[in-house]
Task: inverse folding
């Protein structure tokens, strides 16, 4: 089967909770190759570009400030690329549903996520939703020479 790549982000709540290692472990258990990894202090520009397609949603401002660490003591993001057959669907399954209350209790979001009283889905991770989105996002977060072949 043809290999594909996916962008996985551990968002600032995961860093603040001190569970980045556990989260990386859950993705590594998916039997994909880790082909990129770095820590990023997210700028307004990067956060807005990352969520550009969601501009106009009622939660847009909130998710931009969330990704920048403004809700979590300015913690950074761990950005990773995983590569292998069906990398997108495998990593989406490991992450769980967008709303942590609806996510499988064994998924990352089910285990560690929460919905705040203000209604923010603090769901710990981002995973590209398809191969096309993954290509755009990987190019946004990584330089070519930061990713293994
Ligand atoms: P995904 O992260 O599961 O792909 P998207 O629809 O791409 O979900 O939404 C991006 C992020 O926006 C989510 O991870 C979540 O943090 C937030 N979000 C999405 N839908 C809602 C909502 O209905 N209420 C609050 N936050 C939301
Ligand atoms: Mg998405």
Result:
């Amino acid at each position: 089967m043809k290999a594909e790549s996916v962008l996985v982000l551990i968002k600032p709540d995961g860093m603040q909770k001190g569970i980045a290692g556990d989260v990386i472990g859950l993705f590594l258990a998916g039997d994909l190759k880790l082909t990129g990894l770095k820590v990023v202090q997210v700028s307004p520009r990067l956060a807005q570009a990352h969520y550009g397609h969601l501009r106009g949603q009622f939660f847009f401002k909130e998710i931009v400030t969330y990704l920048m660490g403004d809700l979590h003591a300015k913690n950074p993001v761990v950005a990773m690329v995983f590569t292998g057959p069906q990398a997108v669907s495998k990593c989406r399954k490991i992450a769980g549903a967008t709303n942590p209350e609806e996510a499988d209790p064994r998924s990352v979001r089910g285990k560690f996520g929460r919905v705040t009283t203000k209604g923010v889905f603090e769901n710990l991770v981002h995973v590209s939703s398809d191969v096309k989105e993954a290509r755009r996002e990987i190019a946004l977060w990584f330089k070519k020479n930061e990713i293994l072949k």
